[in-house]
Amino acid sequence: MAIPMDRLQVAVNGYRNKIRDLPPQEAINHLQKSLAYLTKLYMGVQLKKEDTPLLIEGADFVRSKYGHLGLEEIREAFRLSQTLQVNLKAYYGTFSLISIGELLDAYTKYRNKVINQLLDEQQKIEREKRKEEEKGEKNKEAVQDAIESFNLAVKSKNELPMYEHWAAIPQNWYDILLREGLIEVTPEMKKKVATIAKDRARLEFESCIYSDKFVEVDKVHAKKIIKLLSKDELHPDFIARWKSIYSKKIVWQYLKPTTNE
């Protein structure tokens, strides 16, 4: 059952502001007022002036045994008595420490579950945050590595090529280099390379059908892709391969030796 946000906040505030952290007399004074009001409201207790020592004893009992709770949580426990399945009417009209203790024991169990759930959620958020930060660092490293390697490959393409074939170019370079402004794709280049890449992708899937290097399930899949192409329909796997070839061949325009036309 989902716990309302206002009740979650009560538990969190209590966890952060415990009764035991208050000066003893201040805690006793607050608890006396709270218990007098709450026992009257929920238990029908009518305390008289001569009952003050009993009320002080009750306040000290709560402070010493339930100091891990917050002042606001004492009120919350009475509010939740039915939810916590504590029958306060069993001692109706009587200021009973047994009933109050039973109620606060039940609330403590309930509250611990709430706090543990919140802590688990917080830890999960922190883990995800760390993962994102680590991912960001890795992405930065990947970007820097791509830039440095690309620049080196451009300088050495004629004397000592780092890549002798477009297929060896890393898949992620295209997006990085385009974003960083290291390559430029003109409309003419885009159209030309896209056509070449599409034809190449089709050739690869057609070759798969007749190659002994592939198992039957791959050949059946390739046939399905080619059949869709004949209807001018594109399978997601074909699109992925087409894009992969396209991105590598675009980068290849900058890395291929000038004598390699």
Account of the protein in words:
There is one protein chain. The protein is mainly α and 261 residues long. The chain folds into 2 domains: 5-126, no CATH class; 156-255, no CATH class. The chain contains 9 helices and no strands. The chain has helices at residues 5-16, 24-43, 52-65, 71-79, 97-155, 173-179, 187-210, 216-230, 236-255. α7 (187-210) packs across α9 (236-255). It is elongated. It starts with a helix and ends in a 6-residue tail after the last helix.
The count of DSSP E runs of length 2 or more, i.e. the number of strands, is: 0
- Portion of residues in beta strands equals under 5%
Written as H for each helix and E for each strand, in order along the chain, the element string is HHHHHHHHH
How would a crystallographer describe the biggest sheet?
none
Low-confidence stretches: none
Q: Structural class of the helix and strand makeup?
A: mainly alpha
First-to-last CA distance: 68 Å
Q: What is the percent of helical residues?
A: 55-70%
Radius of gyration: 36 Å
Secondary structure tally, helices = 9
- Mean pLDDT figure: 89
How many domains make up the 3D coordinates?
2
| Shape label | elongated
Quick rundown:
The protein contains nine helices and no strands.
Supply the key terms.
261 residues; 2 domains; 69% helix; 9 helices; mainly alpha; single chain; elongated
What is the fold's blueprint, element by element?
Blueprint: H1 5-16, H2 24-43, H3 52-65, H4 71-79, H5 97-155, H6 173-179, H7 187-210, H8 216-230, H9 236-255
Helix pairs in contact: 1-4, 2-3, 2-4, 6-9, 7-8, 7-9
